[in-house]
Amino acid sequence: MDSRGEDRGHGDCRNSACRARHSAAGMLKERNTVMGISIGLVGLGSFGSAFAQLFKAHPLVDRVAFCDCEPERIRKFAEDPFFADKFNPRDAYGSLDEICASDLDALVVITQPWLHAPQCIQAMESGKEVYSAVPLTCLPDSDEVLDWCGRIIETSKRTGRHYMLGETTCFRPQAMFCRRKALAGEFGDFVYAEGEYMHDVDSACSLREVMRRRTAGRIGSEWPAKEEQYARSGKLSTPMNYPTHSVSGPVFCMGTRARKVAAFGWRNRTGDSYFRHDEFSNVTALFELANGASMRVAEMRELAGQISPLENETFRIIGTRGSFSENVWYYNGRTDETDAIRPEQRTRYTDAELFDPLPPEVREAFLTVQNRSSGDLQNRDFVPQGHGGSHPYLVHEFVTSVYERRQPLVNAWEAGHYMAMGMAANRSARRDGELTPVQDWGFAPEF
């Protein structure tokens, strides 16, 4: 039990997350006799660079490689003494073709969103396990998006290689807590859920600046002309073209799928040039889920009143026995009518209390990175950082899944469904809320 009385033991370890923690911990103890894995980082812009130190530091990684079409980006890491023990100058690559021809075990693709799907397919076909930043792809054409999702799944099946989506929401502390509770059956029957991603264009993390950085480099500069071609053919974007931060949390934690959706869109009314290729700046959707619950999702890029991180990027799950919202767990323990008078318990948690534990060796390795970044070499308190603390857990999940040759938690089937939910919401919103089915490829097989 933890300090709040929550059982954080492993029980019979029937869920894959628990098995992963156990097997990875065992392998880490045997590192003196077992070789680690080799990973290549593809795309070393500002976001890709944020993950380089974590991947290098992980105890199960023996070798790192770098790939970018702009040599100065590689040079920054190649000349950093921190990487010297795991980086050989021969492992510097100027193109995806070159690094795919290498003998590396896995590639981490953190390039422009519209490139993720084709690049990951090429990597899997070259024999690599693959991780990509979110989303699986991001294009104005919903049919094209669904086609890429299907191709990612088909390629994974055909090649036997695994794909992981780096969806931060699934590795935030709130998701870890809710997944534990769901696997333990403590929600009871699921009734309702909500997922929200409220990111105004001019928030502290300016979307104008994000787009400027994405289109600044040699490859990124090709996008504006492509976007203009989509617009001329009547293909306009919406926030649901990038739905993963809002839809993934509840669906991932409940282990379910969406069946159908009714959605409505809000169109920009100010003539803001940022939205000139967007059909909607805000979309709200109501999904029917396969577990019998309903789920409201909001993806918004034009709004005021972003008060706190918990309110900007959040989800809630409501069950008959337990519910979770804004770091508060509500529990009545009710199983039948005789429990009706049982008082409800309300427990507020800090983020630190919600996280899953990392193996000690991994925690120590990541603490070194954290101290190096902060300049505080005496700090012994590891605090997970990056998008709600998700970054270390994303790295650990991918590395261990490659090492153990298993499906990652957010695999091709999971990632494809998140995108399919957004594409169905787009179709419904364009048809004034018409009830629309969500394409479903099922759940990932083990191979």
The strand count comes to 15
Structural class, judged by helices and strands? alpha/beta
**Mean pLDDT, as a whole number?**
92
Judging from the principal axes of the Cα atoms, what is the shape? globular
Order of helices and strands: HEHEHEHEHEHEHEHHHEEEHEEEEHHHHE
Architecture (CATH level 2) name of the domain at 169-357 and 412-437? 2-Layer Sandwich
Largest sheet: 9 strands, mixed
CATH class of the domain at 169-357 and 412-437: Alpha Beta
What portion of residues belong to β-strands? 15-25%
Total of helices? 15
**Uncertain runs with pLDDT below 50, 5 residues or more?**
7-17
Strand order of the largest sheet: 14-13-12-11-7-10-9-8-15
CATH superfamily of the domain at 169-357 and 412-437: Dihydrodipicolinate Reductase, domain 2
If you compute it from the alpha carbons, what radius of gyration comes out, rounded to the nearest whole angstrom? Answer: 22 Å
CATH topology term of the domain at 169-357 and 412-437: Dihydrodipicolinate Reductase, domain 2
Q: Classify the helix fraction into a percent range.
A: 25-40%
The span between the termini is 34 Å
Oligomer designation: single chain
Protein name: Gfo/Idh/MocA family oxidoreductase
InterPro entries: Gfo/Idh/MocA-like_OxRdtase_N, Gfo/Idh/MocA_oxidrdct_glycsds, NAD(P)-bd_dom_sf
Keywords: Oxidoreductase
GO molecular function: nucleotide binding; oxidoreductase activity
How would you summarize what this structure contains?
This protein has 447 residues and is an alpha/beta fold.
